[in-house]
Amino acid sequence: MRILLTGSNGLIGRAVNASLAAEGHDVFCLTRPQSRHQERMIHWDPVAGSINKGELENFDAVVHLAGETIVGRWTPAKKARILDSRVKGTQLLCESLANLNKRPPVLVAASAVGYYGDRGDQLMTEESSVGSLYLSGVTKAWEEAAEPARTNGIRVVNLRIGFVLSKAGGGLAAMLPPFKLGVGGRVGSGRQYLSWIAIDDVVGAIAHAVLTSSLHGPVNAVAPNAVTNREFTKALGSVLGRPTIFPLPVFAARLAMGEMADNLLLASTRVDPVRLRETGYEFKYPDLRGALRHVLGKNL
Ligand SMILES: NC(=O)c1ccc[n+]([C@@H]2O[C@H](COP(=O)([O-])OP(=O)(O)OC[C@H]3O[C@@H](n4cnc5c(N)ncnc54)[C@H](OP(=O)(O)O)[C@@H]3O)[C@@H](O)[C@H]2O)c1
């Protein structure tokens, strides 16, 4: 297949690019001019609104992952970049795809389980309502920005991705230094749910969404068993062979990370991958300890 990929320099994009290329697909990367040089690059500037539509013709699928990283201090300017890069970028891409002579049949667009917000023990399905955190509003607007593609006959899958487990970057890589030093621990009460997914299964879910014609709309990309922060902490400590006896109090998390702490570390989001299950996706890493051993290279 001829596949167009945005966000190809990111944690998920790099893994998707490598996997699709290894399977023999022709992958073209839609990247910003300042991004790292790659083979088969097409340039766009999602926020400034520039894109060369002529270069977007004749793709069999589009995988859209681009967006300002949510890591970092959430100043008003950073929050605006988190929102604008996603909403304006998705609008620009989808309006451009909608106006092509030969539109791609499918667009798989990243979204996030942050859509559901802070929901305690409730099990969220794709039918559940939007939450009330900042990231909930961002993800809702981000998904809605794909409307021009949807209304022009492109099958759009909004992949609501959970906390991605990878050694190469993202939240788990950031947690490793304190945990390896034996000063890691639960955050706050540790009762908040964390919906995680191994990087291999994010890549697998994207391929599954491209190939499964019955899938459209929101699709939860999380492993079948969400765990509490306390359970996650224990599992990580045990896989690393380190103690986890130093909890991070809520005030310290807020002091260190500001609003990001409430949206990511302290929010309880327990998500069920109903649509992936119903369409027969088989998780490579459904169990947390097995997933951690695999991504951290600690196989027994
Ligand atoms: N990793 C996770 O745990 C996780 C969980 C839930 C949802 N997601 C979502 O999945 C998508 C991919 O995640 P990721 O972890 O691979 O993200 P990432 O490592 O932060 O990479 C995102 C990519 O987006 C592009 N980008 C960065 N800043 C941008 C900006 N200001 N405007 C437009 N594009 C920009 C860059 O690609 P180029 O340099 O090629 O342009 C970058 O490599 C993101 O939208 C993220 O919100 C990730």
Brief overview, please?
This protein is of the alpha/beta class and 300 residues long. The chain has helices at residues 11-22, 76-98, 134-144, 147-150, 170-180, 199-211, 229-240, 250-257, 259-265, 274-278, 288-295; strands spanning 2-6, 26-31, 41-45, 50-51, 61-64, 106-112, 123-124, 155-161, 163-165, 193-194, 196-198, 217-221, 227-228, 270-271. The protein is 38% helix and 18% strand.
How would you characterize this protein structure?
With 300 residues, this protein is of the alpha/beta class. The protein is 38% helix and 18% strand. The chain has 11 helices and 14 strands. The chain has helices spanning 11-22, 76-98, 134-144, 147-150, 170-180, 199-211, 229-240, 250-257, 259-265, 274-278, 288-295, and strands at 2-6, 26-31, 41-45, 50-51, 61-64, 106-112, 123-124, 155-161, 163-165, 193-194, 196-198, 217-221, 227-228, 270-271. The protein has an 8-stranded mixed beta sheet with strand order 4-3-2-1-5-6-8-12, with helices on both faces. The chain has a two-stranded parallel ribbon with strand order 7-14. Helix 1 (11-22) links the parallel strand 1 (2-6) and strand 2 (26-31). Helix 1 (11-22) packs across helix 6 (199-211), helix 2 (76-98) packs parallel to helix 3 and helix 7 (229-240) packs across helix 11 (288-295). The chain is globular, with a radius of gyration of 19 Å. The two termini are 37 Å apart. NADP nicotinamide-adenine-dinucleotide phosphate (NAP) is lined by residues 7-13, 31-32, 35, 46-47, 65-69, 81, 85, 89, 110, 112, 161, 163-164, 169-171. NADP nicotinamide-adenine-dinucleotide phosphate binds at residues 7-13, 31-32, 35, 46-47, 65-69, 81, 85, 89, 110, 112, 161, 163-164, 169-171.
